[in-house]
Each structure stands twice: as structure tokens, then as C-alpha cells.
Amino acid sequence: MPANPTDSGATTGYEAELWAMADTLRGSMDAAEYKHVVLGLIFLKYISDAFEERRAAVLAEWGEEAAEDRDEYIAENIFWVPREARWARLKAEARQPTIGQTVDRAMTAIERDNSALKEILPKDYARPALDKQRLGQLIDMVGNIRLGDADARSKDVLGRVYEYFLSQFASAEGRRGGEFYTPRCVVRLLVEMLEPYRGRVYDPCCGSSGMFVQSVEFIRAHATGNANGGKARGDISIYGQESNYTTWRLARMNLAIRGIDGQIAHGDTFHNDRHPDLKADFILANPPFNVSDWGGERLAEDKRWRYGVPPRGNANFAWVQHMVHHLAPRGVAGFVLANGSMSSSQSGEGEIRKSLIEAELVDCMVALPGQLFYSTQIPACLWFLARGRRRRGEILFIDARKLGRMVDRTHRELTGEEIARIAATYHSWRAAEEGNGYTNVPGFCRSAALEEVRKHGHVLTPGRYVGVEPQKADGEAFEDKMKRLVLELREQQAEGAQLDAAITENLHGLGFKGR
Fold it and tell me: Sign of the CA dihedral 499, 500, 501, 504?
């Protein structure tokens, strides 16, 4: 089922108010540092809420001894929170100058007693550069939010707050923050188009794990029978890799707060592929655009470059071929790339793109509107590759550049209706038999034959294929329109002459009597 048409993915409620309050406590601290301070506390409050709710139930039914039995919590998939890490302890000491050490000890204790959280929680709250008064105020603020009890979990309060804060930090950090945060609407579009109901889902540059979170949310939204005959039950396995250690920790936290299991590895995907034998049913990714220092000179003979050796100065087609290498025999991949990837012929990129097209791997291309990303103003597109394609000899082109709405002065977002429209177009095209069930829409989408793509030099820019959106006729006869337009022109010329005369007269009055 397509995305909810009324849900654009934007969050404008209490999350924004929380952010405003948290941001005022940042002071002069760099957003990149403050991010981990805030998100760590939010995570701690979440597991504390879930723990206290379970503890109250066990205490009422079995008494104090049972309430301190770790197994009573683990059995219910609730993290065990030792005494020294409970929120009440933090709240009581929030105004003490030693609050930093208290938080660090709490994080260490939680990691010690919960193996799934080992090495992922921030533990540098005691550092001198962190204002302890502001830290105490932040603890008070976070303490007023119910994040982890049953009601909050049913509404995904934590997920919404966490994701909103990630997006705001990405905006505040600019390029660095945007490297690990893909806007929700772009992730939703990828997920709605690929529909990863079951199988192995892989992201070779997973950032903060947004692709995985949205995949699981997609399955949960469809598990009640509205789509796929009600058969979707979340039977997926998650695999990811992230080279930045700090971002890798964020990724694992992002999955842990939602109870999602995943094999998320740390390391350089090109030079230390941690899932070398994986063949994925679905690949979703947003690789960093146009990376020049990816070490390609050390990988010239790599087995992944089946369609051509990627240029040393740009990793775009290294990412593409890495993903093709990891696709299962009937796997599909959807990923974001810079627009240049659709037409560039520099350093052999055109030949690699040609080889991918002639190998019948390119399924669909989507041109995106500008201003969607926090990290770059470079125009972007979506590639969809598939093995074992049904529509062989054709490629679907979708031009979505005119879609989206501005959510603030600098950022655009695709609406729920637009996501649904694009996804439905792709699904109807893939399912069409002998042309039935899908229709080209001039200016928006077109199914182009491979021969036509060859004539365009294997360039994949949708604008070349979809044509121009037809203009609506206004019903006015041509002669009548021309008379009206000529009359308007004459009136504007006369008004212009009057303005010129007035300006000349004013200049003369000021003593400027030039020719």
C-alpha cells in the first residue's frame, strides 16, 4: 500500500517544542558534540521508563525481590537498568556539580548489564567542557517526557523525538550532519517503491540506520491486511556497515531504541567489506556524493568492478557496483546518487553506465526536486536496479523535480500524496502485462525502450524521455488572445514612457542635464 496520503513525514508538534528547549541549553557547544549529549539522555530516559513500568507491575504482583530480578525484564525484551543508572538517581543529582560523573557511571552500568548495548552509549558527560548546570537543566527537561512506557511506545514517541532531533542536528551541522541523515521523505519513497516485506535488507553506508527503521515501520504498517493480502509479518534480516565510528554508534542506538535486531558492522565498505558473502534481496542506500578520496587506486583489480573500473577521483560507480555485487539473483536496489551519475562520461563513467544498462540491470530512474537534503545542494536522483527484471528492454523514467513543498526557508519535502503517486507509478509499471495497467504521463513518467536510451548515448536523465507536461487550454480564441496581449503591451509601453519622462524631469531638477 502506498504511503498515507495525509502524512508528509514532517513533524511539527511537541517534538519541535522539545527541540527549541533543548537547543537553548546548547549554548556555545558545537552541534556535533551536543548531539550525543542529548540523544544519550533521551535513550537513557526511554529505557528507564520501560524499566520502571515493568518494575511497578512485578513489584505489585511478586514483591521487592522479584522486582530486582534481571530475568523478569529480559524475558519481556526490556533492558535491565541497575540501581545506579535509574532516572530517579539522575534527577536527584541533576543540580550537583558531579552530575557528569553520575551520568557516565549510569551509561557504563547499562552497557555492562546489557550486551546488546555494549560500546554504543556516550560516556563523556564528565568532561570539563560540558557545562554541568546546562546538563542538569537538560536532565530536568528530558525527565518531563514519557518516552518508554506502553502508551508512549504504542505512539512511537521516542522514535519521533529521536528522528526529529537527528534531522535538526543534521540541519545545524550542515554537510557533516547530513552525511549520516537522509530526509525521512526520501527514505519513505525508497521503501515504498521497493516494499521490503521479507528477506535480507542491506545498506552498505547505513549512517544512523534510517533506511532500516523505515523498512520495519513499513512492514508494521502493512501487517494488518491492507496490503499484500495481510501476509506481511516482518520476516527480514538487516545488514549494514558504517565507516564513521561515532555514526556507527548512533546507528546501533537508533535500532536498539526500536527493538530492531541488525548486524551493523563498523569499517570501510570498500576496503573492509564486513559482509563479503551477503547476497541481499533488498538494498537501500544514500552513499556520500562524489567522494574523491575513497582509495580506488588500491582496488583496481577488485572483483566487484564487473562493469568497469570506477574512476579514482569519484566513488559514485564504485558504490553502484558494490551494490550490484551484493544483489541476490532476484534482488532489487534503490539508492540516491548525484544527478551527474545519470549523464557523466568522464573517466569511464559513461562506459560503466552503458554496461549496466546493456546488462538489463537498470529498472527505473527518478529525478528528485532540489533542496531535499541537509548535506548538499547538489541535485540528486534515485536509481533502481533489479536482477531478473520482468520489463526487459525498457526503463521507467519519472521526473519528480516539480514536486515537493517548502517546509522551511531552505528545505523541501515530498508530501505523502506525492510519495504515493511515484510509488504507485513504479508498481503499476512493473506489474503491467503487455502495456496494460500502466500509462505514460507527459512531463511526469515514461517507459522508454532500450533502443531509445541507446540513441541518447545511454544518458539516464528522466527529463530527456518524459516530455513536456501539456498546457491546459484556456478556451480563448487565438485572435482574441493576440488582440488582448497587444493591447496590454501597448499600455505597458505607454506607462514605461511616462516613467522615463518623470525620471528625466527629476534628474534635470537635480542638475543632471545629460543627453
Answer: positive
What is the average per-residue pLDDT within 322-336?
97
pLDDT in the model for residue 8? 39
Instruction: Give pairs for 436-442: CB < 8 Å, separation 24+.
Output: 440/466, 441/466, 442/466, 442/467, 442/468, 442/469, 442/470
Confidence of residue 260 (pLDDT cuts 50, 70, 90): confident
- Asked if residues 38 and 138 have their Cβ atoms less than 8 Å apart, the reply is yes
Q: Which of 376, 403, 375 is nearest to 462 (CA)?
A: 403
pLDDT digits (tens, 9 = 90+) for 61-80: 999 999 999 999 988 888 99
pLDDT in tens, 171-214: 776 555 445 568 889 999 999 999 998 899 999 999 888 888 88
How far apart CA 306 and CA 351 sit, in angstroms, is: 12
CA atoms within 13 A on the CB side of 52: 16
- DSSP classification of residue 433: B
pLDDT in tens, 77-135: 889 999 999 999 999 999 999 999 999 999 999 999 998 888 889 898 999 988 899 89
Q: Tabulate helix, strand, coil % of the chain (nearest 5).
A: 45, 15, 40
Exposed, middle or buried, 264 (CB in 10 Å: 0-12/13-18/19+)?
buried
157, amino acid identity: V
Q: Which set of grid coordinates corresponds to residue 452?
A: 531509445
Spell out where 273-320 has E strands. Answer: 280-285
Q: How many residues in the chain?
A: 515
- Amino acid of residue 455: K
Give the predicted TM-score (pTM) of the model. 0.79
Count of Cβ atoms closer than 10 Å to residue 269 Cβ: 24
Please provide the DSSP assignment of 24-47 as one string: HTTTT--HHHHHHHHHHHHHHHHH
How far, in Å, CA of 414 to CA of 29, rounded? 32
Q: Tell me the H-state helices in 259-402.
A: 316-325, 349-358
Cα–Cα distance, 40 to 254 (Å, whole number):
11
Interatomic CA distance for residues 424 and 436, integer angstroms = 14
